[in-house]
Amino acid sequence: MPDSGPKQAPRGVVTDNLVSLQSFILEEEARYPGATGEFSWIISAVSLAAKIIAHKVRHVRLQEVLGEQGDVNVQGEEQLRMDVIANEVIMRVLGGRSSIAVLGSEEDEEPTILRRGRDGGKYCVLFDPLDGSSNLDTAVGVGTIFTILRNDPSIPGAVETVCQPGSKQVAAGYVLYGSSTIFVITTGRGVHMFELDASIGSFMLVKRDMRMPARKKVYSVNEANADGFPEPFRRYLSWAHANGYSSRYIGSMVADVHRTLVNGGVFLYPPTAKHPHGKLRLLYEANPMSFLVEQAGGTSVTADGRRTMDIVPRELHERVPLVMGSRDEVAAVLNA
Ligand code: AHM
Ligand code: MG
Questions:
Q1: pTM higher than 0.85 for the full model?
Q2: Exposed/middle/buried for 335, CB within 10 Å: 0-12, 13-18, 19+?
């Protein structure tokens, strides 16, 4: 019999294994001898919270959760009812996980101490419960961003405990509530993407080890603020205009960064007249996204070219000017 070459699966037969987020994380954790499974419990809590929030976001009008709460959060921004609900969902779901020592949220002035290190609190979780929520009115993609840090029981204060540079993150990710619900995560070994199959209630692996292209002529910035940008950013925009670049800006960080991760390009939030230190928050927006971008082969820096994840934070809600994305595109911004 002649050799017919490598065997192919019969048509219509799926050869790839189906992997849920749950089993993926268990598999990852099993690589570490002595792992206790506590970390997997935290990710499973984040994914449960994400499913609850996804359901609410999808029915935001029917459930009448659009509109203002009437309060202002610590950043002086009006809180939407959905911001408050998403925050509560995450606090209540994660609050029950016995290995979490501290929770910190964009919506709360101070981090919440759940338990001390001696009581088993090994980790801290920081999150932005519903980033870009002002876009909910128009059914645009919004997201949840999270990061997991180790708890150092020798540090007494909650703020001091969570003020760790991004390079110390144990894991980070986001959930995009877009036309589909997407969960993207890194534990420092690549970036992996899952999609929610609502019929079975599971996030299923759709892309292992995402890599972002090194080059893509797309920039993503709120160009209406350009007059208030420092000169190098204005020079970059003129250069990009003259060099055939396209502009894509949703105004919802999770959606803009997700597109940048998948397609390449550069996402920027430079200092502006209104936000001289940038608008985005270092600990629970910039750092988790920087971890993902770097793990996918990209770069993330602040306005002065320093690596974002090297900044030592001083406070929970600190802001940072941000340039992140494809390696060569970030370099083009810095070289302008
Ligand atoms: P939020 O956390 O209050 O929702 O604000 C953050 C959002 C980001 O999602 C987005 O990148 C940015 O604000 C857009 O800001 P602007 O409207 O100034 O362009
Ligand atoms: Mg936000």
A1: yes
A2: exposed
